[in-house]
Design goal:
By secondary structure, this protein is mainly beta. The protein has one domain: Calycin beta-barrel core domain (Lipocalin). Helices cover about 0% and strands about 75% of the residues. The protein has a ten-stranded antiparallel beta barrel. A hairpin with a 4-residue loop joins strand 8 and strand 9. The mean pLDDT is about 90. Pfam families: DUF1934. This is DUF1934 domain-containing protein. It comes from Leuconostoc kimchii (strain IMSNU 11154 / KCTC 2386 / IH25).
Length: about 150
């Protein structure tokens, strides 16, 4: 698709985090925007959690890599490519932390004509070469006129 387009979509995000044997699961539903610019797919939305500053979230989706930027009280920039360990950044008012993602699962299945898609990611997050946690993300989105499964 060579043209640019933008559509509102329903978004469902499920994140499982395993840290030192404890697993937490977060689920979030909202409305966001699907943008396609020169064959690159962007998904953006604002994450609003009670008692916290809203966080702007941007996913950049390509068939073999994903970028995730989160900006609110802190700025996080993560990159994912299956089988690769990539540098990431976490900027807080106290300073910047050097992080790395080691992606074990990455499946991007997007149909821009139908304004829908599913992204499945699994990765290990490292800070200073120490494992911080193991993350599994399921991101689903579709046009506002239809319902998510």
């Amino acid at each position: 698709m060579g043209t640019n387009h933008k559509h509102d979509v329903n978004i469902h995000l499920k994140t499982s985090i395993n840290q030192t044997g404890d697993t937490e699961v977060f689920e979030f539903q909202t409305v966001g925007e699907l943008l396609v610019k020169r064959d690159v797919i962007f998904l953006r939305y604002t994450e609003v959690i009670a008692e916290q500053t809203p966080t702007n979230v941007l996913f950049k989706l390509e068939s073999d890599k994903v970028r995730l930027n989160r900006s609110g009280d802190s700025l996080t920039k993560l990159a994912f490519a299956k089988g690769q360990r990539l540098q990431a950044y976490y900027q807080t008012p106290a300073g910047q932390m050097q992080l790395e993602t080691d992606t074990t699962v990455l499946v991007v299945d997007v149909d821009v004509k139908q304004d829908k898609g599913v992204v499945t990611m699994g990765y290990d997050l490292y800070a200073n070469d120490a494992l911080v946690g193991q993350y599994d993300i399921l991101l689903q989105f579709n046009g506002k006129s239809s319902k998510l499964n």
